[in-house]
Specification:
Strand order of the largest sheet: 2-1-3-12-11-4-5-10-8-9
Strand content: 15-25%
Number of strands: 14
Number of domains: 2
Mean pLDDT: 94
Number of helices: 13
Structural class: alpha/beta
Low-confidence stretches: none
CATH superfamily of the largest domain: Isopropylmalate Dehydrogenase
CATH architecture of the largest domain: 3-Layer(aba) Sandwich
CATH topology of the largest domain: Isopropylmalate Dehydrogenase
Radius of gyration: 21 Å
Length: 371
């Protein structure tokens, strides 16, 4: 374990600085527990960088990111930049950063938190116990394939779905390795009954499965998977899929959790891993104290797990979040009128409650270790 973990912090726009601030406080609590230290270097990105330096991704930000152990992002974007050309908008800075870091596997957990069961449109008995990790290939497929075009004169547009065997192998291995650390089940999603690309995908994943005999592999067509996610989400463990299908399915599965504000993500496999909550910059509530920091805090847990190898510490953060929710604390986005025992708290107050419970978990762990 490294004595020092260097993290490039890019809070970004809107509520980004507010939620990343709470995530940093939690990581600093972890650093005191383990005797290591996090060195945070804060750099601008997105709209903040445009205002300060005229670019959504300044060279100094990119250099810092490439020289760090991990990158922790808040959010980017704002309506005031919508008139800019697409390559000059805040989102372009994030896309450039992702490309430079080279991560090809996007990890998105969808967890059914029991205290939030009424937040989901699905019945509690359907979502109870659901814990899914989506592994989405991020650099190939329909989003990046060429040729691509839109001929406005003929009214014809073209996109190309393309994968190589090597691209499938590298993301499949990550998914199988993650399944080995979870419940040893992997569902590979494709459309092999129609698409040749999916036939390549299925054949390659089946081939790689032989390297992981302790993991049960099943294949599902994407349309069937979309239905089963809503009917029987507990049947899934790790879900592996290509770029387009993963984009759609992971958003669909967000209803299991009940709020985008609860969703963390990680992009791994490249030079430096990138961590960011799924929610956007929400400029309409920036500075009001209404932002939910739990997605960012849980993103910090993913950073510990996948860049620092700190599984116990990651689980401690996740347990602290569970306990705070069980105690009834809610930010405005999580509040429901049919839950009388909830306590509405601000961004900072929610972070404080997680911090306090985490310290209780740390104290208990240290006491048990002393015995």
């Amino acid at each position: 374990m490294s004595a020092e973990i260097n993290v490039t912090l890019v809070p970004g726009d809107g509520i980004g600085p507010e939620v990343t601030h709470e995530a940093v406080l939690i990581l600093e609590a972890i650093s005191q527990w383990i005797g290591s230290s996090f060195q945070f270097v804060e750099m601008p990105i997105g709209g903040t960088a445009i205002r300060q330096q005229g670019s959504p991704l300044p060279p100094a930000t990119l250099e810092a990111a490439l020289n760090s152990d991990a990158v922790l992002l808040g959010a980017v974007g704002g309506n005031e930049f919508n008139s800019l050309p697409p390559d000059k908008r805040p989102e372009a800075g994030l896309l450039q950063l992702r490309q430079a870091l080279g991560g090809f596997a996007n990890l998105r957990p969808s967890v059914a938190y029991a205290p939030l069961s009424n937040n989901s449109p699905l019945r509690p008995e359907v979502t109870e116990g659901a814990d899914i990790l989506f592994v989405r290939e991020l650099l190939g497929g329909l989003y990046f394939g060429t040729p691509r075009s839109w001929n406005r004169e003929t009214g014809v547009a073209l996109n190309t779905m393309q994968y190589s065997r090597e691209e499938v192998i590298r993301v499949a291995r990550i998914a199988f390795e993650l399944a080995q650390k979870r419940r040893h089940k992997l569902t590979s999603v494709d459309k092999a009954n129609v698409l040749e690309v999916s036939q390549l995908w299925r054949a390659t994943v089946t081939e790689i499965a032989a390297e992981y005999p302790d993991v049960t592999l099943e294949h599902q067509y994407v349309d069937a998977c979309a239905m089963h996610l809503m009917n029987t989400p507990r049947n899934f463990d790790v879900v592996l899929t290509e770029n387009l299908f993963g984009d759609i399915l992971s958003d669909e599965a967000a209803v299991i959790t009940g709020s985008l504000g609860m969703l963390p993500s990680a992009t791994i496999g490249g030079k430096v891993n990138l961590y960011e909550p799924v929610h956007g910059s929400a400029p309409d509530i920036a500075g009001t104290g209404k932002a939910n920091p739990l997605g960012a805090i849980l993103t910090g847990a993913m950073l510990l797990r996948h860049s620092a190898g700190m599984e116990q510490e990651a689980q401690a953060i996740e347990s602290a979040v569970q306990r705070v929710l069980a105690a009834g604390y809610r930010t405005a986005d999580l509040a429901r009128t049919n839950q009388p025992d909830q306590q509405i708290v601000s961004t900072v107050e929610m972070g404080k409650h997680v911090f306090e419970v985490l310290n209780e978990i740390i104290d208990c762990s240290q006491a048990m270790h002393a015995v």
